[in-house]
């Protein structure tokens, strides 16, 4: 079994690592076909390299554990390992005082992730398994239509954010808990300001995207359209419209492509 070590990440010309990248891409094309078809091969290779680096940082260098880690990136966002909305991840990755075997930790992580996904899946699919895409689109529209002025009161804004997220994504909001949602609202305001968004609509949109796509959504190689909009250099109102348009287009393409196995 191949073990991938950090020096190899820095020199991807190493034949074994390149071969592993090809193998992982074939795996993702089979099991994450929509990701692969929406993003394309070149961007998925960027995702794989990012996953190699992150898995290695957690001591998950075995081939099977790296692939499993990248699978979870596709399901939970590339920054799932540091996402404050997923507090169960860090203890599993650390493996306790005995620093459990990498395969044991990877298996526990995978089991915990799927248990979490099972609790929130009702927000994303109906009982027949059909996607509830309209729910997300309506939430993005609500954020886009929010006031263009800065919120007059941070506490009142945070309460509106919590109510909005609980309305559209009740299962995930319940699984997250009130305390973490409140922390998310405050973090969303700060993150929005870091990107030059001072309006309520910008803060609500950024917070909603952090909640839905993951804490690291603005640096996620699985979401290249986000950084494109955020760094376009356009005024705030234009960048907000770009985020909405790119996000809606991504959802449309995601659910209309026919996955190939």
Distance between the amino and carboxyl termini: 25 Å
Task: List the uncertain runs.
Answer: 8-12
Helicity, as a percent range: 55-70%
How much strand content do the residues show?
under 5%
State Rg. Answer: 19 Å
Number of strands: 0
Shape: globular
The biggest beta sheet reads: none
Q: Quick check: average pLDDT?
A: 88
SS element count, helices: 14
- The class by helix and strand makeup works out as mainly alpha
Commentary on this structure:
- Helix content is about 70%, strand content about 0%.
- It has 14 helices and no strands.
Q: Would you kindly provide a brief summary of this structure?
A:
With 261 residues, this protein is an all-alpha fold. 68% of the residues lie in helices and 0% in strands.
Tags for this entry?
14 helices, mainly alpha, globular, 261 residues, single chain
Topology:
Blueprint lengths: L5 H4 L5 H17 L1 H7 L1 H17 L5 H14 L12 H6 L7 H19 L12 H12 L9 H15 L1 H7 L1 H17 L5 H14 L10 H7 L5 H21 L5
Helix pairs in contact: 2-3, 3-4, 3-14, 4-5, 5-7, 8-12, 8-14, 9-10, 9-11, 11-12, 13-14
């Amino acid at each position: 079994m191949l073990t991938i070590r950090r020096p190899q990440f820095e020199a991807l010309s190493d034949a074994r690592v390149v071969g592993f990248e090809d193998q992982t891409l074939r795996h993702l094309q089979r099991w994450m076909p929509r990701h692969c078809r929406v993003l394309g091969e070149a961007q998925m290779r960027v995702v794989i390299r990012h996953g190699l680096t992150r898995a290695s940082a957690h001591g998950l260098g075995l081939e099977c554990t790296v692939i499993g880690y990248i699978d979870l990136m596709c399901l939970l966002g590339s920054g799932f390992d540091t996402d404050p909305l997923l507090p169960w991840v860090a203890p599993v990755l650390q493996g306790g005082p005995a620093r459990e075997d990498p395969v044991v930790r990877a298996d526990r992580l995978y089991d915990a992730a799927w248990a979490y996904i099972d609790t929130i899946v009702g927000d994303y699919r109906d009982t027949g398994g059909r996607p509830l895409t309209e729910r997300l689109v309506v939430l993005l529209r609500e954020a886009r239509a929010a006031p263009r002025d800065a919120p007059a009161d941070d506490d009142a804004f945070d309460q509106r954010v919590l109510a909005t997220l609980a309305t559209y994504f009740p299962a995930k909001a319940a699984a997250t808990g009130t305390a973490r949602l409140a922390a998310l609202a405050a973090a969303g305001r700060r993150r929005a300001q870091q990107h030059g968004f001072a309006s309520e609509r910008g803060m609500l949109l950024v917070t909603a995207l952090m909640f839905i796509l993951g804490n690291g959504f603005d640096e996620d190689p699985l979401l290249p359209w986000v950084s494109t909009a955020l760094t376009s250099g356009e005024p705030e109102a234009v960048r907000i419209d770009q985020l909405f348009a790119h996000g809606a287009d991504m959802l449309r393409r995601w659910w209309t492509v026919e996955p190939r196995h």
